[in-house]
Amino acid sequence: MMVSLIPDITYGQSGANGTQVWLDRENNMKILFSTTPAQPIISTPSELKFTVQNLQTSKPVTNLLAGVDIFGGTSSEESAFRLTNISAPNGQFSVNVIFPEIRPYQVITRITSQNHNVSLLASFITNASAPQSTLSPFSRNYIIGISLLVAAAAGIGSFLILRYRTKKD
């Protein structure tokens, strides 16, 4: 009797436009993962989108049930979010979440077909960031605004000096 010691390997990689791809060659499946916005922002709703396709044909795998666990937050060992029994009749599903902290989050999805002949597990990483401030001291808009104020003050000052000198003469 012979036992295989080589595990089945699945592959995850980043694709175009921030889409991550999880390949499961054993089950001939691929899972596409993306977020809206592309860079999730803390305390703001984010949509996590999943698409399950046949690896060879890129056609959607239909009649699926999914679950999503998101790890991160205050304790990396505990699931920050757990969503179960998500229906994906056309091979696509999404979940809406609000990330509470600036940090990377691990998104794990479990996918099974409704007749249980497909079972997949995939993992993705997404990073939640702070909102961009438009009034940052080093932002381009802030510098332009300050420059315009200084130029206006210099112009008004020059006008008043010239007016004072012409009245004096």
Compact summary:
The chain is 17% helix and 47% strand. With 169 residues, the protein is α+β, with helices and mostly antiparallel strands. The protein has two domains: 10-128, Sandwich (Immunoglobulin-like), CATH 2.60.40.1930; 134-169.
Which features characterize this protein?
169 residues; alpha+beta; Immunoglobulin-like; four-stranded antiparallel sheet; 9 strands; rod-shaped; disordered N terminus
Walkthrough of the structure:
The chain has 169 residues and is of the alpha+beta class. The chain has 2 domains: 119 residues, Sandwich (Immunoglobulin-like), CATH 2.60.40.1930; 36 residues. It is built from 1 helix and 9 strands, in the order βββββββββα. The strands form 2 sheets. A 5-stranded antiparallel β-sheet has the order 1-2-3-4-7, with no helix packed on it. Strands 6-5-8-9 form a 4-stranded antiparallel β-sheet, with no helix packed on it. The termini are far apart.
Strand arrangement within the widest β-sheet reads 1-2-3-4-7
Query: What is the CATH level 1 assignment of the largest domain?
Result: Mainly Beta
Low-confidence stretches: 1-12
Please state the average pLDDT score: 81
Q: In CATH, what is the homologous superfamily of the largest domain?
A: Macroglobulin (MG2) domain
